[in-house]
Each structure stands twice: as C-alpha cells, then as structure tokens.
Amino acid sequence: MNDWNRLRETFRQIWGYDEFRYPQGEIVKTILQKRDALIVLPTGGGKSICFQLPALLQDGVTLVVSPLVALMENQVTELRDRNLPAATLHSDRSRSQKKAVLNALEHQKLRLLYLSPETLLSRQVWQILAQPHIDINGIILDEAHCLVQWGDTFRPAYRRLGAVRSTLLKNRPPKTRIPVAAFTATADSTAQQTIREVLKLRQPQQFLQNPYRPNLSLHLRHTCTPRNRKQQLLKFLKQHPQESGIIYARTRRDCETLAYWLQQQGFATAAYHAGLGSIDRRQLEAQWLNGQLQFVVCTSAFGMGINKPNVRWVLHYQVPALLSEYLQEVGRAGRDGKPAIAVSIVSEPTGWLDPSDKQRQQFFRDRETAQLRRAKQLAKQLPKSGNLDAVKTEYKDAEIALSLLHSRGQLTWRDPFHYKILDSTPNPDSNTDAIREMQRYLRSRRCRWMFLLEAFGFGEEAKPCGKCDRCRR
Length: 473
Fold this sequence. Notes:
alpha/beta, seven-stranded parallel sheet, 44% helix
C-alpha cells in the first residue's frame, strides 16, 4: 500500500469518510512533508482533521496550541472516544491528571497534546519539551485569529510563540524539522501577515478559502431605545420557537443580566462566559448540545470548536468590535448546510436615543488606550533586555507591556523567556483600522456578504447573495 492509500485508509477507518474535502488532502500532505502552513478555512470546513490525521500517522507528539479549555476538551474527547492517544493540559485539570499527562508526554506515549499558550510556556511543561529525546513532529496553532485579537493585552503569551520552534531546535540534531501550521476560519490580509510574522513561518504553504456560506443569511436591525432592543429580541425568539441558537453579548455582566431577564420571560437559557467554573461550563455546553437549553447567552468564549451542526440562528444583542470576531460568531450557525440566519441588533446610526453601543465601544477604546499608555511608561523603566519572570515580579503588567512593544516592532524575543527592547520607530496600530472596518460594515448599504468577502481579500469572488437584508431591499 502506498503512502496516499495508507493515508486515505486511516482517514476512512477513524473518521468514516471515503474522500477528503478540498483542500483537506493537500493540507495533510503539506504537514506530513514537514512544511509550514497558513490555513484559512470557513467554520465547519473540517480543519481539525487536517492536523489530527498527520499526527496519528507519525511518531512523536504534535503540540496543538488552543485558546479555550472547551475547545481542547471537545476535540480530545472525540479522539479518546476513538481510542486515540491524545490529551489536554490546562488549569482546570487536577494535580493527578496533570501528572499523568506529563508522564505520558515524557515517555512519548502521546500523539496529540492540546494546551494553551500559557501552559506550553509554563516551567513544568517546557522542561520536558526542551529535552532532546522528546520527538516533536509539529506545532499547530488552532484558532490562530486569537493571536491577533487577544495577543497584545488579553493573552500576551501568544506573542512569545514565534520563539518556541527555534529554541526547541537548539537542543536537537542539526537536520531536525519542526513544522508550524496556523489554522483559522477568519483572517484578512493584515491578520495573515501578523500570524506569519509572529509565528516566524518559513515560506508557508497557504490555503485560503473565502468564508461565504450560501445557506447563511445576514441581517441588521436598528433600535432606537434599550427597551426596543429587548422587544426586538423577544419578537425574534417568538419567530424561531424550538430552534437552537446563540445570543452574543460583549461582557460577563451583560450576559448574566440578559439571561436572567430571558429566564423570567420563560425561556430555557443560561449565561456562559469565561468567569464560570470548569464544571459549570461543561454542564452548560452539554445542556445546549442535547437540547435542554434552546440557546445560550454568551461572550465570545462560547461556540469556538463546539460542534453543533443544527444551530439555526445567531443573534448579536451587542456586536463585536472587529469584523473577524463577527464572522467567527455568525459562522456558528448552519454548519449542517441547511438554511440559517444571523441577526445583529444595533443602535440607529446617530446613537442619540440609544447611546449604549457607542458607550460600550468607547469603554473598550479607553481601556486599550490606558493599557498602551501604561505600557509606554513601563517600557521606560524596564531593563533593555532581561528575563520575563524576573521583570514580572518587579513590575506589574510587565508581560502586557512587553507584548505591546512586540506588536509595535519595538521588541524581540530571544527565546520564549528572554526579551530585548529595540531602538526603533513603532509600527502603526492596525487595530484602529479594524474597528473602523466593522463600523463601515454596519453602515454599508451594499450586500452584506459582498462587503465581507472584499474585506477579507476575496473581492474577485464576491457577488450579491440575494438573501441578506440589503439584497432583499
């Protein structure tokens, strides 16, 4: 049996499919050839199979860097149900569970290890991975858009990932190759460039598919008052009884307040956000997956990697700041290919009667500005080069400051734990442009899908969808 037939047979035995969907087969070949890759496939495009299959066909362990515990647990549960050697490492695991996984890693009994950027760079895990005898056959960054969205301030460990491969290779034979592949459903050209630069991808093979989903209809509804926003939400829910869905809000408090109010109206729902304990989150996910909850009211922490094909609608009670977040979140609907709808409720453009959207946007902008100001002040006090752990004990928010300096081209990581501040002019802040792009989308009178495709670099493939609120008008 040749290699390609063996690959297809393994694919059929484990996942039950006879053929790959394009470009799954090509991505698998690229990773098996030890080449770097950047993969942008629509939500529901079967990205996880593209790195799970190569990992199972090789010796050694593939490290899958993933942003959320729910995402890791769901993928590993599916793999372990098939008796495949995969595990997770994260803060919610007990001491005995962590010890067992670390022992399996050290004795090379794993093929896939899912862990967060912070766990990957923790002392206990790094000491094992740095050992020359540990065979690492690849590093996968799953949901790579999180590096762009969260890496500057919320999850600064993302900014150190580019130094991981080169540091691991220092203790290994000269011809050792550790490919790095980044997977995401949404990344415009600027985000793609950031991912390539931060991860230090080497001549990556690129697989870029447009995010258009012909079964997904996009709509905006304007509101003039906070009361009218709730009325529109109730009207929508009554129009979609018994259908599974997701309601997105932007903060934990908003999620809890809205979920409580909807419970009072008789709906089977609950609030989901990163502030909940692990057991509570798993319980809510299970209740939603099995239909006990018709919908959840959640922050962006929900939905990523949770495989529920029959989500018929996604409603943004409050829209995200970035177009990439919006596209990720609406993409949770209609993964089974059947008709689905995504509705966003937004304040009328002036914001005079309902200023809540503008106030929320200003709050997040002010917070980011304050963080940047603090980082600039801190940068003047930090040593020009040093050890991250040492400066973190002496300076509060030092890690965020270093991350912001790195994102502006004013810092380099010698390895994941040692930095050097550069004397260079800061790069322009691309996040401001991304926020403006979201506002342009909300105000646009053009086809929703055409706007999105052009924003994400697929203008040549854009044509009116005929289903969104703009096309119907």
